[in-house]
Specification:
Length: 514
């Protein structure tokens, strides 16, 4: 037995070395951690249970049978993060450049299948040169098997992808299907076709970083939800994100211990809205003041900044925040903001995470570019997501709520549970000036002094219509509240809504306007 144990220990050591010391050194010289170092940092100490350590590829073409390394370029298994079970895989770039073979794919599929049965999140640490060319279509089939499981797991368990190196060609579609994508600045790259192919086909000169780096995908394409300076930061923030998420779709939202015997009045909220209606302010100030410990984990921070989404806690309950941002494009809704908001709302609804909506929206962005690129369809995604969501939904209108955007941002008409407004709220079909110019067109044009007449009519219109009270009279607003009382009302509302039950009509699935 002693000899057999020694043999096993040697096999384990060989597997842990991956591609060997030289390849590990090269990985470190690029500023990258190894597959196993990443796992060690990510999971609770001593909790990782590896599976399929001894798996090797089964190919023989192109002399590849002479290089059969245990693990075959991916480390897979189960662990605890913040005390909760997860399934994970970490691609090993030191073995065949982390390229995906049949055996490599089988390992990943095995832990994904188990995660679905166990109801635990799936985390993928991607660092791969793509499909293993020597295996041809077999490796492509492996990718398809993973894509299928990503799709079937969607909405069942949270799926998180961290791109820690290259991720090209078909490989990009697995992270794209998952719920959240993390990237590392200057070392992560994602693209369907690389710079060389782009140059050949379109004659464009573009670098790896410009084409598919973390900055590009976190600011322009919206593929990456998070981009950080280092792998260590990425790993720390994956742990942080998981602190807001339940393990699966059947679990209740995360709830932390909370002291309800404290003072929830926040006087600073009374002074944030400017006296001038068109003057911008930072909605993030309000978000931080409303959330427990002023802590907010923003998602898509640098993409479509006219809308803010992210996670926090209200009275100990994990919530998803969706808020217009008046300091960027006046908080107007455009194509990118609509898609960003819709995607986030549908994730929260899939995993029973209540929604807090903070509204200051002048409408949808006008112009040929928006219309020709489908603002109607994309805006409908945001509307669809709010309408479809059955989780607790609470809205606070801080200032503007104009036109169709009022309807879309979780109005009472689309099943908002509690809808509050501050005294500064303006709920109307459109902005006062535009409304007056349409309604009183004849009076203004026939007046001797057009400007004076406009100002006179505008003042009267603002007094009568640019306020929350007509909506409150009809019950579209549950209560007009003083800003300082908002946190108190939110805590009470989300506590009350813990027992909420709502459902959509039975169907195979909906047909969101993609």
């Amino acid at each position: 037995m002693k000899e057999k144990i020694e043999k096993l220990e040697k096999l384990r050591e060989a597997a842990k070395l991956g591609g060997g010391e030289e390849k590990i050194k090269a990985q470190h010289e690029k500023g990258k951690l190894t597959a196993r170092e990443r796992i060690e940092l990510l999971v609770d100490e001593g909790s990782f249970q590896e599976v399929d350590m001894m798996v090797k590829h089964r190919s023989s073409d192109f002399g590849i049978d002479k290089q059969r390394i245990p693990g075959d370029g991916v480390v897979t298994g189960f662990a605890r993060i913040n005390g909760n079970q997860v399934a994970l895989f970490s691609q090993d770039f030191t073995v065949f450049g982390g390229s995906l073979s049949e055996a490599h794919a089988e390992k990943i599929c095995k832990i994904m299948d188990a995660a679905l049965k166990l109801g635990i999140p799936i985390i993928g640490l991607n660092d791969s040169g793509g499909a293993r060319i020597q295996e041809g279509v077999v490796s492509l089939g492996g990718y398809a098997e993973i894509f299928l499981r990503n799709t079937l797991a969607s909405g069942v368990v949270p799926q998180i992808s961290a791109v820690m190196g290259p991720c090209a060609g078909g490989a990009v579609y697995s992270p794209a299907i998952t719920d959240f994508v993390f990237m590392v600045k200057n070392t992560s790259h994602m693209f369907v076709t690389g710079p060389n192919v782009v140059k050949t086909v379109t004659h464009e000169e573009v670098s790896f970083e410009e084409l598919g780096g973390a900055e590009t995908h976190s600011t322009k394409s919206g593929i990456a939800h998070f981009a950080f300076e280092s792998e260590v930061e990425v790993i720390e923030n994956i742990r942080k994100l998981l602190g807001y998420l339940p393990s699966n779709w059947k679990d209740r939202p995360i709830e932390k211990e909370f002291n309800f015997e404290q003072d929830f009045i926040e006087p600073k909220l009374d002074a944030i809205i400017p006296d001038t209606p068109n003057k911008p302010y930072d909605m993030k100030e309000i978000i931080h003041l409303l959330l427990d410990d002023n802590e907010f984990m923003e998602v898509h921070q640098n993409y479509a900044q006219n809308i803010i989404v992210g996670f926090g806690n209200v009275g100990g309950v994990s919530v998803g925040v969706v808020a217009n941002q008046p300091s960027v494009l006046a908080g107007v809704l455009d194509i990118n903001a609509s898609v960003k908001g819709a995607r986030f709302i549908r994730f929260c609804d899939a995993f029973n995470i209540p929604l807090l909506v903070l509204e200051d929206v002048p409408g949808f962005l006008p112009g040929t570019e928006q219309e020709w690129n489908g603002i109607i369809r994309h805006g409908a995604k945001l509307l669809f997501a709010f309408c479809e969501a059955t989780v607790p939904k609470v809205t606070v209108i801080t200032r503007k709520a104009y036109g169709g955007a009022y309807d879309v941002m979780n109005s009472k008409h689309i099943r908002g549970d509690f809808n509050f407004a501050w005294p500064s709220a303006e709920i109307a079909v459109m902005g006062p000036k535009g409304a007056v110019e349409i309604v009183f067109k004849k009076e203004i044009s026939s007046a001797k002094d057009h400007s004076a007449k406009l100002e006179e009519l505008l003042s009267g219109y603002i007094d009568k219509f640019a306020n929350p009270y007509i909506a409150a009279e009809r019950g579209y607003i549950d209560e007009v509240i003083i800003p300082r009382e908002t946190r108190q009302r939110l805590i009470a509302s989300f506590q009350l809504l813990k027992t909420k039950v709502d459902q959509n009509p039975k169907k195979k699935h909906s047909n969101i306007p993609l």
